[in-house]
């Protein structure tokens, strides 16, 4: 291998894949980054047991020139730290001795001991399989994942709840996540989707990483779902994630179909008030009191004090209500809603509160189970 | 107490004093902030056993109006978090019921349970004592503390080394700190200093906090040293710190008086090179090789690899040398030197390396003890 590459391109690629490096893996090769220089460009790949990320830099003569092909796996942390400290524009990567990568940049020369590239896990190219394929605007995908993945469980006691359910049927894709107390659901219309229906449960952690890798530019993300894995592809990036096996709990009977009251409030006002009131909330429990024209928010902590805040209602339809819920959970939901106003539906003391971001698509729904309090 | 105050002034004052709050103190009152509203303004005070910080906002009719005097100690964390979340410009602080502070801001009302202000430690006004007094430009004081305090020890095994020695004698102030491996010393000329000589050892941690509180503006810091404490005053701020008892180790025989070689290098180049080489350094040990026109930096980690970097010499006087030292320590020193170039003096294999920032004052000296290596 003999490759000339600009520092920016190299840093960008390494920065993308380093999220998938299995830092504490007992398998040494998974602590590395697989660099493969071919005639068409250089790929950088990192992999842990759950996710593989690959970033490809095409040979364009400007940011990259491949003078001799080759491949090696090198220790990620040292490589990243060394490159990061350099400020020379051009970096030369060369394999002169077997399994040793020489990095020359400006006045410095680094020799890194590597491992055999052939032993590194590769991204399956799916020969012989016929995966379900769909395409989505990257920005839309990013915002959808941000909204839904936030409510997935982080506890491994029920592994299925650490995933986000993707259910595709008749040109519509439904994403659902829940941790048992909260639920988020968003339905998107998919154009040009031709294959069969599918259900897949994708680890929320991997999904969040994928969405962070997507740039905000107006590009398209391709998604391929096969039996036990999902692949995301956009703009030189390929991410493969394992799927979670099992059946996602049915959420049909959980979402209240009718309601006793609906209120509409300004989102920014409400978020500020909930954040403020949650500071003083014992165990994060805050109380909402909806009257004819205001939503009162209250909380208290014994021996410390109490707080009361008011948000004006934009609309109110139905009866007044009082309910207690987890303020932190409410903040998570509001922070991830890109909209001007929020619709809140009350369906009775023991039913979950329905929160609907009032955006142009109206495709997102959140549930929060109320907390029972004594007084 | 009934006080109207702008959010910015309030946040600023609380932000200053919160560093001295004893968050985990078994004495509940030390977890609080003492608010005292008098005819001339409102003071905010926080104190742990080692340091007390007081920020005073004068009554000017614009940012603060005191309508009724009074005092209360309130829980710092809740107060800070609640005020921070508000975006209303004006905050009203009022004591309506005994030991309860009511905070009204915009649409929210908070009641915080407080404690008796009379039980809070106060900053000694020094009646009956005649402290040594001196004045210094705040920016100069800040940069001096930054340079010297960084090498103080953080281990409590020898408490005296966690302090910075202030030695004032004949209009000159000498600051020294050392952790046994490194040493930093800076001598400043003090104008208008009239009192007797003094020696004081100030905890480096407190000193760093003080220097962070000082703004970069062209103001003056007053320092008052009495028997067992030191007071810093600048721009409405008062900080009082306990002193460390004992005698600071003599450093006279530690600093080499003659040298075999002196080199001059560009600071930015050297810092970049040391940072880069230290990444690959086993136990942070890097090797410096000074030849006629370059300084070579080398390091290696077994089974990972090695690195070599070069910095051109601006000047070289004396014999070539090779020495090994702790790269992290070298980085600390270089990062805190505001100068174009660095002078390095070599006085033999077993003598400490002398590092002199080549700035206009030429008043700072660093020592690093070399590491003995086998090859």
TrEMBL record, chains A, B:
Forms a ring-shaped head-to-tail homodimer around DNA. Belongs to the beta sliding clamp family. It comes from Paenibacillus gansuensis. SUPFAM superfamilies: DNA clamp. Coiled coil: none annotated. Gene3D superfamilies: 3.70.10.10, DNA Polymerase III, subunit A, domain 2. It comes from the Bacteria. It is found in: Cytoplasm. CDD domains: beta_clamp. Keywords: Cytoplasm, DNA replication, DNA-binding, DNA-directed DNA polymerase, Nucleotidyltransferase, Transferase. This is Beta sliding clamp. Confers DNA tethering and processivity to DNA polymerases and other proteins. Acts as a clamp, forming a ring around DNA (a reaction catalyzed by the clamp-loading complex) which diffuses in an ATP-independent manner freely and bidirectionally along dsDNA. Initially characterized for its ability to contact the catalytic subunit of DNA polymerase III (Pol III), a complex, multichain enzyme responsible for most of the replicative synthesis in bacteria; Pol III exhibits 3'-5' exonuclease proofreading activity.
């Amino acid at each position: 291998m003999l490759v000339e590459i600009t520092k920016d391109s190299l840093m960008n690629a390494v920065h993308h894949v380093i999220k998938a490096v299995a830092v504490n893996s007992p398998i040494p090769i998974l602590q590395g980054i697989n660099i493969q220089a071919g005639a068409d460009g250089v790929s950088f790949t990192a992999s842990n047991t759950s996710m593989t990320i690959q970033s490809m830099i095409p040979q364009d003569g400007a940011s990259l020139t491949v003078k001799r092909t080759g491949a090696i796996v090198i220790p990620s942390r040292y490589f990243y730290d060394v490159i990061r400290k350099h400020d020379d524009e051009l970096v030369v990567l060369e394999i002169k001795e077997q399994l040793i990568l020489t990095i020359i940049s400006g006045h410095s020369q680094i020799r890194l001991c590597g491992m055999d590239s052939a032993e590194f896990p590769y991204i399956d190219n799916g020969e012989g399989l016929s995966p379900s394929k769909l395409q989505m605007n990257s920005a839309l995908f990013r915002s959808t994942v941000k909204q839904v993945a936030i409510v997935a469980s982080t506890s491994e006691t029920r592994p299925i709840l650490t995933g986000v359910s993707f259910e595709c049927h008749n040109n519509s894709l439904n994403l659902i996540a829940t941790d048992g107390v909260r639920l988020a659901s968003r339905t998107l219309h998919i154009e040009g989707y031709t294959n069969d229906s599918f259900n897949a449960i994708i680890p929320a952690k991997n999904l969040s990483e994928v969405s962070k890798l997507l740039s905000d530019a107006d590009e398209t993300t391709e998604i391929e779902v096969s039996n036990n894995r999902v692949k995301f592809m956009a703009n030189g990036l390929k991410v493969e994630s394992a799927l979670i096996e099992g059946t996602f709990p049915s959420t049909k009977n959980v979402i209240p179909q009718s309601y006793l009251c609906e209120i509409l409030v300004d989102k920014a006002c409400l978020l500020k008030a909930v954040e403020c009131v949650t500071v003083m909330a014992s165990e994060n429990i805050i109380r909402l009191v909806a009257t004819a024209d205001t939503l009162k928010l209250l909380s208290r902590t014994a021996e410390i004090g109490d707080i009361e805040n008011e948000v004006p209602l934009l609309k109110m339809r139905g009866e007044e209500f009082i309910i207690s819920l987890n303020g932190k959970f409410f903040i998570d939901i509001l922070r991830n809603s890109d909209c001007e106003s929020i619709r809140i539906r009350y369906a009775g003391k023991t039913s979950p509160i329905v929160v609907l971001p009032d955006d142009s698509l109206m495709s997102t729904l959140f549930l929060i189970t109320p907390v029972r309090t004594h007084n």
